[in-house]
Amino acid sequence: MSRAAITVSGRLAPVVLLGAMALPVAAQDAASSNLRDRTGRDAAQSMPDFAEPRDVPLVSEAPPAMPGASGTVRFSAVAVEAPGDAVPYARNGWSPAHDEASGLTLEPAEVLGPEWVEAQFARNGLIGAEVPLDRVVALVQLMNRAYVANGYINSGLLLTGAPPRDGGTLNLRLVAGRLLGEGDETVVVRFAEDRSAGLGADYVRARMPSARAVPINAIDVERDFRLLTSDPAIGTVDANLLPGDRPGEALLKLTVTPQDRYDLYLSAINNRSPSIGGERYAAGGSIRNLFAGGDLISAEAGLTGDRGDVVGAYEAPVGTAAKLLLRGSYNDAAVVDAQLKPLDIEATDWSIEGGLSAYLMRTPLLPDAVAGQWRPARSLEVGLRLAHRESKTYLLGEPFSFSPGSVNGKAQYTALRLTADYIERGVDTVIALSFTLTQGLDGTRPRIAGVLSPDRDFRVVRGAGSLAKRLTGSGLELRARLGAQWADGILYSGERYSVGGAQTVRGYRETLLLADTGVNGTLELAHPLQFGAPSNQFNWGRFTASIFADAAYVDNRKGPDPSPDTIGSVGVSLAWQPSPALSASVTYGYALKDVSIAGERDLQDRGVHFAVVFRPLRF
């Protein structure tokens, strides 16, 4: 710990304990991401995985050409029977094809209904003249190809009755395709091995709204299907689109494998400040679909030294495009540094928050017009949360104020958070951006003249961006991360920006510097390594090696500035993941700037960070 962190304004250890009160979450996956804070010392952005392409053969190629018909016909009008308002619509950017052999052409239109069909016959000079029958059939086939090109794979035109030869009316029927299921349901849902894991078929059907449309559009069905496969409650989905007994009818069968309902993990990570004990041992887990389909309950309990902490969260879908999040945490810590331990410095901290978020945009990974290329999946989620945090600090067993905003050892505040998250997942590039605007609503303020104190209506803007890009076919990846925070004044300890440690600047101890504003960045090159051949469930020789450079700058709005205000490091890391049940990593960072440390040097102060996570249920 830097000496600047030990003495400020003549008071002992104002940041030693509160700066170390961050509650780092051990597991880094979707099930545990809701346990993390968006602001403060524990805030960290997770990097989504690369998207995995998958063929979904729901959109058929254009139908084969119909065999030629002999003879001639002559008709003075075209009548198209259509099923009410259920008519196809052209997709944006659709350009109609033409038949080079016959010279027949189609005109673009927004609505591909009866009026459009009749207009195509007039456009190609087939009304009021004696024309070959095969030319009429060719035009019908060309229009049917237009329907397929726009996704209407089981919609199209049928001739009804014999073609007129004496100037009568050509009768056509526009078939509007639809899905037929069981009873009133348009999608047949089955769970693999009859294992629903608490997830109902209605949850799946609700996320396939296009299946209820008439006429059915396979492009929309494919879009919903691909979004369904990325749903956190879903493991895998297999789709089978079968033709029905009558023209325009089809049957969509989905075989769903839910995500594992239960998860459990044990971890050992040196990701807490050495001043309170650098190593943290934790146990956590989650359960899905307990109160409602798609909900998730997560919890983690940790032990640092002889002091414990716990965090829990509940997340549930609200409709199909929104979700509810409730989160709470409690943390107990004490300084264990030999020089400061006689002072009996202790702290407790608890927080609660809740809010709603909704997707403003969500598109899945889709095949591109260029063969072999894929358009990335994109999502934009915004939310609003209300948060409350309270901390208490003690010196020699008595309440004592160490941090801004604390009164008789107690600091509390309430804040409103506006959040936004943008994620773009491609097959070789992943981009993640997050934004959090925090507006203070109320909080404690000391009334002692000259003591620095936050405003109750403090304002903080925090942003983060991450990039992962595959550079070669062998798996070489470029990883970049940038985080920043701006505040309009002095902040409560729980909202301050922390640098140092495994999530920010490796090679330094956790929460080395704590300030009102700051910026940190990382550049990393990673490459997978394989030694030997996988055996059974384990790939013992699966490693990822990386080299990195980290840097950070921090500053306070008022009062003493951190010293130093800039740190940086370079280093190497080796991660081992022989199976989904076991992962471990060790990192060495070389500090580019020496920092004075009071007390005993920890493994973190020597630049070493490690993590081991074991998931017994994934064997």
Topology (elements, then pairings):
Elements: E1 7-8, E2 11-12, E3 72-73, E4 75-81, H1 114-123, E5 131-132, H2 133-149, E6 156-159, E7 168-175, E8 178-179, E9 187-191, H3 201-206, H4 218-229, E10 234-243, E11 249-258, E12 262-269, E13 280-288, E14 296-304, E15 307-318, E16 322-334, E17 346-363, E18 366-367, E19 374-375, E20 377-395, E21 398-399, E22 410-425, E23 429-443, E24 459-470, E25 477-487, E26 497-499, E27 513-515, E28 517-530, E29 542-555, E30 566-579, E31 582-591, E32 608-614
Shape: elongated
For the sheet with most strands, the description reads: 16 strands, antiparallel, barrel
Q: Please give the order of strands in the largest beta sheet.
A: 12-13-14-15-16-17-20-22-23-24-25-28-29-30-31-32
By CATH, the superfamily of the largest domain comes out as membrane protein fhac: a member of the omp85/tpsb transporter family
For the residues shown, what is the average pLDDT?
A: 89
Which regions have little confidence, pLDDT < 50, spanning 5+ residues?
A: 1-16, 59-66
Cα radius of gyration in angstroms: 31 Å
| The top level CATH class name of the largest domain | Mainly Beta
What is the helical fraction, as a range of percent?
under 10%
What distance separates the N and C termini?
Answer: 40 Å
Which fold name is given in CATH as the topology of the largest domain?
Answer: Porin
